[in-house]
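Tutorial, part two.
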Amino acid sequence: MAKCETIDLFQLVHESAPFTFSRDDILQQIVHILVLSNVMLKDEVEELFEINFVEFIRRDMEGTDLYTRRRIAQIQNCLGSFAASPKENWKCKDCAIYLVVSLATKRAGGSSVSTELVEVDKFFRSVIVPELRQQDVNASLMLKAAALKFFTVFWNQVPKYITISLLPVVICFLTADSNVVHSYAATCIEKLFLVIDDGSKARYTSADLSPVLLMLMTNLFTALKKTDSEDNQYVMKCIMRVLGIADITKDVYLQCISGLATVLMRVCQNPINHIFNHYLFESVAVLIRWGTEEDPPFCQKLKMSFFLSSKWYWLKKYLKVWKRTANVPALVRLLLAFLRKAPLELNQQGKLLMVLGIFNTLVSSHITDEFGFYVLNTVIENVGYDVLSTYISHIWDPLYERLDFNLTEKFTKSLLIFMSLFLVKYEAKNLVNSMNDVRPNAFPAILEKVWMPNLKLITGPLEIKLTSVEPIRLINESPTSLDSKLWRKMLDSVVTLLSRPEEERVLEELEVPDFWETVFDNPTFVHLYNAEKKEEDPLKEIMDPKLFLQIKPHYCSFAAHITFYSEVFPILLLWWPSGVRVRLYVSFDKNEVHIATPKN
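Running the prediction step on this input gives:
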């Protein structure tokens, strides 16, 4: 605060009596006596550098000093004092670097500086580069940190060829004993790969990184072994960034598996830094993605390094973790992976009932109901109806309860998608019978009061395809459950859904919580960028739901076909591109009636 108060006092006096202090010699004396004496590095800051690197970096690099008032005056004097006696006056050089960096932070984005006041390129070559090229990474530590910070702030103005030549030098600083120095080195490297040139093209690519990649990863994991840097978020963020950009080789892959597995095992015992943990899991996700896509045999090493030997024991042992909302998205993703890979085990030792219990817990809350449907849909996709039918009441009872007492738009959309998927996997008769067996006449009531009025709410291309195709199948496969008025309403709902403009049918973006705002408050799920979920299309054979029309006549009379097609033909013609003349063919066989266009 002494620095800021001194400058504020200087400004106040200057504004109050401008004529008294207008002489250059007086202003120069005030700047030298009041300002520079307070912006010069203090002993307590030097002590903080040595004993609490996290707090030093927070104050120095992340903008805690709100004033940033060190001015450019006396920069040359500071450099001159340093040149006269480098050993005694090293703080003068630190002061000069700080002054230039402070000037940069006053510009938009902190990436530009007025060339009328400071020639950044000249200052970088004459002051910063010599400091970086000193071979002893453990000498003049505060000057090394200042030089690395300068490089990080002005990375956008340093020519690429100079940066590439300095990259091995910066990598060496990762082995420095000083926590601040190797943290600044990691930050410098990480920021370099965010530089975007004109045309939105990355300045530095994997090709620039490949020659030093193995050394870089070795030194990064070395930094994580330094005292007090075991949970260094700056180093782990650099690991994450490098893995996301680099062309990973097998040597690097094996090195990272070993290093990250060791870190992960330690973190699981005492997860103290949420930011570090997030970057750790992002890094692991990159390795998993690379291993599964580029070299599947190496997946075995991933399993041995990262994953549990038993797939199901945690369901019983850690049921309490499901009670914390922040844990639910990640736990559901993990559970879905187990369900897809080991569906046959579900019918053993009550595992399916256990999974349905998790579904029941999740779907009963409006906060987690969507995740409950994820679990239920995955069960439907991977378990036969002969197995699931025994537990059907465990599905419909909680759904009916929500319909009766806590119906929301989100729940309704998820329910329609689930019922459509049920139709795909188990056919219409099983859907109708299972619903009515648990609650008599439930199906027609839900169809009329929930399904048809809310079909228009569905968004997303796969969801629209699923919920528009399956009602058509329902109409034709289970006509006894629908009177003519109901199936006409259902058809009208499908037409309304498919006729919406494309921009209105885009899937809404999930609101991902801001990581930096939530990580220090109550635990919140943070999405992993490198662990994107791939959506599976349950109707791959159907390219366009508008052109899908298939009727099974052994359920309907011929008169019903004629009535149905009298509704459908005008709709198809409306959907057809304007100016295109086409004939529609109706073909009958003993099982099906099709409407199609000629192939030629």
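The first helix runs from residue 2 to 16. In part three we will examine how such features are distributed along the chain.
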